[in-house]
Amino acid sequence: MRHNYRYVGITSNLEDRLSRHNDGRSHATRSFAPFRLIHKENYSNMLEARKREKFLKSGFGRKFLDNLES
Question: Is the separation of the CB atoms in 33 and 22 below 8 Å?
Answer without folding.
Answer: yes
